[in-house]
Amino acid sequence: MVLRLYASGVPIDWLTLEEAAVLMSRRSEGAIVWTDGDGTHRLHGGTNALSGKQSYIDIPDVIGVAQHANTPLAYEHTGFNSALCKHREGLQCAYCGSSLSRQALTIDHVLPRSRGGRLSMLNAVACCQRCNSFKANRTPEEAGMALLLEPFVPTMAEVLYMMRPRQVTPLQLWYLRQQFRNAALRTYLSEALAA
Ligand SMILES: [Zn+2]
């Protein structure tokens, strides 16, 4: 995967090698301002019938693209998204800490919906079905449950990291880390890096 950022350093998204190759081929149009980690990835194309050689294109690890005046800078991901909510906690139950697949995790309103709790990144956590059923229409305090992680609105850099923590290259991580804000995530990261 290739990390696409605005030239200013604000991350946008992940590109597949194919998507990055298309962007590279349009380089003359000025979309790409700079690249880093040139030649990290190599995408192979077809074989030339005459020479018998397979074509390839070298693709950088990080691509910085132009930002237009009307492009909003999405520093934070403010809207609610259940997948992000689950990845924010590292695919773990926010109450008992058990690791589960994204499909197996449920979304819990910390302040229950029946008490006016809204579905937002600050009032929702991912948890296992067991904890969710046990907590029911109660606050964590009433249910005697503790949150292992305080819900937070992630930055785009945190979101992109959480989407695929194991596939991020050291260079990509360097760029993303500049905009990590959450202390829990930073601690988790430094532990993961030290391990
Ligand atoms: Zn649980």
In short:
This protein is an alpha+beta fold.
Structural write-up:
The structure is a single chain. By secondary structure, the protein is an alpha+beta fold. The chain has 2 domains: 116 residues, no CATH class; 62 residues, DNA Binding (I), subunit A, CATH 1.10.30.50. It has 7 helices and 8 strands. The two termini are 23 Å apart. The relative contact order is 0.16. The mean pLDDT is 86. Zinc ion (ZN) binds next to helix 3. The site of zinc ion has 8 residues, from helix 3.
SSE arrangement:
Elements: E1 2-6, E2 11-15, H1 17-25, E3 32-36, E4 41-47, E5 54-59, E6 62-65, H2 82-88, E7 106-109, E8 124-127, H3 129-135, H4 140-143, H5 156-163, H6 170-177, H7 183-194
Helix pairs in contact: 5-6
The protein binds zinc ion.
Zinc ion binds next to helix 3.
The mean pLDDT is: 86
Going across the biggest sheet, name each strand in turn: 2-1-6-3
Ligands (ions, cofactors included) = zinc ion
The percent range for strand residues is 15-25%
Radius of gyration: 21 Å
Choose one word for the global shape: elongated
Number of domain modules? 2
